[in-house]
Structures are given as C-alpha cells and as structure tokens.
Amino acid sequence: MSRCLRYFLNRKQAAVGWTTIGAPASRFRVAALIIGIVALNGCASVRSRLSHRAAECSQLCEESRSARDAGRKDQAEQYLDAAIRRRPRDADTQLQLAEELWSSGRQLAAAEEVTKVLESSPNDIHAAVRLAQMQLEIGRTEAAYQAAQLAVRIDPACPEALRMKAILEERRGDTDAALTAALRLVDASPDDVEAVLQLAMLYRRRGQPNRAAPLLRSARQHSLATLEQREEAGWQLGLAYADSQRWADAQAAMHPVVHERATMTAEDWYQYALVESQCGHAEQAVAAAHQALVQQPKHPAANELARKLEMAGTRTAVLPAGFQTGAPARPQ
C-alpha cells in the first residue's frame, strides 16, 4: 500500500470511525475516493515511465549523432537501434528519432516513424509537412502529395504546407492547382523570397511572363533576399524578358549573373547564347554556345544555333575540339 493511501485511510478512520461506518452511501463515497487516489498514483507512475523512455530515446539519438559525426558508423547504428527499441509514444521524441534515422541514411525507416506520429497525432502539422518532404525526396510522389494534402487540411495557411502542395501539384502536371497554392503561399508569407520565385516560375511555365517579371524584379530588390536568391531572380527575369522577346532587357538581366550562378546547365548556356545572338553580340553567343555543347553535345537547340553560327563564319570558335555538327541544312 502506498504511503499516500495509508495516510488517507488513517485520517479517514480518525475522522469518521472507519469500522463503524454503517451507511452504504458513505462506504461507497469512501471507496470511490480510495479508487481515485490509486488511479492517480497509477497515472503518475505511467507518466514517469514514459518520460523516462523519452529521455532515454532522446539521449540515444544524441549518442548516435555524436558517433556518426566522429566516424564511428557501427556504433552510431547500435545507438540508433537501441533508440528505436526504447522509443515512447511521444511525438517530439519520435520526430527526433525520425530525423536521426534520416540523417543516417535510413530514409524509409524515418518516413515510417513520422507516419506513426501521424497515426497517433493526426493534427500534427509539423509531422505532416515533414512526411511530405521525406516522401518527395525518397521518390514517392503520390505519398508525398497525400501528406501535403493532409498538411493543408490541418492548417490551410501554413507556408511550408502550401509550398509542398505547390511543388507536388506541379509534379503531377496540374499547373493551375500549383499556381493557386503558390498564390496562397505568397499571400500567407509575402516576405518569403523563395515563394515569390516559385510563383514567378509557375507564371512563366503557364505562358505569362508579363506576370512573372514584376515578381522577379521585386525579389531581386528584396531586403531579405540572399545573394543566391538575387542572382536567381536576375536570371529568371532575363528568361521572362526573353519569353516576351525583349532581348535587350533579357541580356541586361542575365549578363551580370551568368558567371555567378552556382550551376549552369547546357540548357542555361543555350538560353544565354540565344539572347546574346539576338542582341547581335556574336562573341558572347559563341562562347555560351560552346559551353552548352561541351556539357551536352546532342542538345538539339544548341546544335541548331551552332549551325547558324557556323554559317556566320564562327565554326572554330563555337565547337569543342573534334566536335562535328553534321552536314549543314540544304538551302531552300
């Protein structure tokens, strides 16, 4: 018998004479009080055990992370397996475990852990968004879409939920739905430069460069924009101008950032070569076309541009060493 219960019984006996209580109602009330105290003691004990398991699981996750950072991969896996065995039904600790699983390369197990969180806490917005992100990176587009839909139902104004919905609607080929989600995202988070860039890109893909251009000019000048975001906004602005055949404006926007972007694909170099050629800048067009063909020798549009530059007498400057464009097109 617990110390608390023993104390209660002694006090009750002293007050009303436990052995002389005769009324059934009185005995019932006393019994109910006793049961309540026992239940409270039991709940406290359960909470204590759960709290202890959560602390243990959290500590094991930390040990796993430290071991992995130190290069002790096997030990990190052992800690992680122990954390899985000790995991409580506590959303925060389960999400911590999921992140550690994800960082260790066990992506499917991480997604499964977040799914379990949602089974017990179906209105957990953080878990729903994180599951959508994980499933998308794993390559489960439909599962990611379902998680994003759940996240938006939980909180229709959550920026990360709307961002994932816009991305996944576009992946599914529904540009209109993606645009609607992106508009809601910018409305909910107007200072989110990444959201503005995403919205502008969707306008361009929808064939509305005149709507994209003002957004991109705004993003390029936004006080919260990072250097990388400013450069990307400038590049996308150049593409929007090119979509409208505003070649001089396109060149002015793209030229300052073309050599600053972190990555330039063959398509990027081709687009820049096209803009420079439309502006009559032969040397810049030749250099950009050369870069496109080095990266992707069979790029169809770059090959067509190369043939045009060849006919203009710039063959050796455009083509990589040993590269052949094939026979020129017959004159019509």
Describe the structure.
This protein has 332 residues and is an all-alpha fold. Among the domains are: 80-172, Tetratricopeptide repeat domain (Serine Threonine Protein Phosphatase 5, Tetratricopeptide repeat); 190-262, Serine Threonine Protein Phosphatase 5, Tetratricopeptide repeat (Alpha Horseshoe); 265-320, no CATH class. The protein contains 17 helices and no strands. It has helices at 3-16, 24-69, 73-86, 91-103, 107-120, 125-138, 141-154, 159-171, 175-188, 193-205, 209-221, 227-243, 247-254, 266-278, 282-295, 300-311, 315-318. Helix 8 runs antiparallel to helix 9, helix 10 runs antiparallel to helix 11 (209-221) and helix 11 (209-221) packs antiparallel against helix 12. The protein is elongated, with a radius of gyration of 32 Å.
Main sheet: strands, sense, barrel:
none
Q: What general outline do the C-alpha atoms trace?
A: elongated
Number of strands: 0
Mean pLDDT: 80
Looking at the structure, the CATH topology of the domain at 80-172 is Serine Threonine Protein Phosphatase 5, Tetratricopeptide repeat
Q: State the assembly state of the protein chains.
A: single chain
Element string (H = helix, E = strand): HHHHHHHHHHHHHHHHH
Q: What radius of gyration results from the CA coordinates?
A: 32 Å
CATH architecture of the domain at 80-172: Alpha Horseshoe
Q: What is the CATH domain class of the domain at 80-172?
A: Mainly Alpha
Beta-strand share of residues: under 5%
The assigned structural class equals mainly alpha
